[in-house]
Specification:
It is globular, with a radius of gyration of 16 Å. By secondary structure, it is α/β, with parallel strands linked by helices. It has a single domain, classed as DHBP synthase (Alpha-Beta Complex), CATH 3.90.870. The relative contact order is 0.23. Its main location: cytoplasm. Its EC number is 2.7.7.87. It catalyses: L-threonine + hydrogencarbonate + ATP = L-threonylcarbamoyladenylate + diphosphate + H2O.
Amino acid sequence: MSTVYDCRVQDDRVAGLAAAAGAVRSGRLVVLPTDTVYGIGCDAFDAAAVRSLLAAKGRGPDMPVPVLVGSWTTIDGLVLSVPRQARSLIEAFWPGGLSLVLHHAPSLAWDLGQTRGTVMLRMPLHPVALELLRDVGPMAVSSANKSGFPPASSAAQAREQLGEDVQVYLDGGPSGENVASTIVDLTGTDPLVLREGAVPVADIASVLGVEVEVAR
C-alpha cells in the first residue's frame, strides 16, 4: 500500500524521506518533487526497479530513463569524461532545469533502457529531492505520469495516474510552472539542444560562447 507524506510539515518530511530512502534501497518506486515537474524514481543501479518504473509509466526501454544526482561531483563517477563545456554548464545551471547527455562510464552496471552508451543527467533545485539523492545516491527518475498523459505538477496528480505502483509519495506542494528541463546533448562534436525547456537556449549559448544548434 502506498503512503503520502506532506514534506511541508517537518515531522512528515523526516518520516517521508526515511520511508523513501528505504523504498529506493529495497527496489521500490517513489514519487518526489523537483523544480520542474514531479518525478517517479528508483535506484539507478537496480535494473529490475528501472523495469518496474517503465512498466508503471507504460513505457518501453526505447525511451531511456534520466538520472538525477545530488551534487556536482557525483557526475565524475558516472561518465566517461566531463568535457569543458559540461563543466561550464554545470557551474552555471546546476542545480536547476538543465539536463546533460554524456557518454556514461562503460564500467557501470546499470540498465536505463536503450541508451546507446549515453546517460542524461540533472541535479534538481529542490530541497526534498536533493536530500533524498544525497542519502541514496543517483536515482533513475522520469516524469511522474502515464505515457501519453501530462506530467504531474503535484503529488495528488501523480497518485491519480500511478496509484499503488509507487510505494512512497513525497508531497512538496505544487511544482509551479509545468516546464520540463532543457536537454543538451554533449556527445557529439558540437552541443545540440534536444529540447528547450526551463533554461533558454540563448543562456546556454552565452555560457558556452558559441552558437548552439537546436534539434528539429
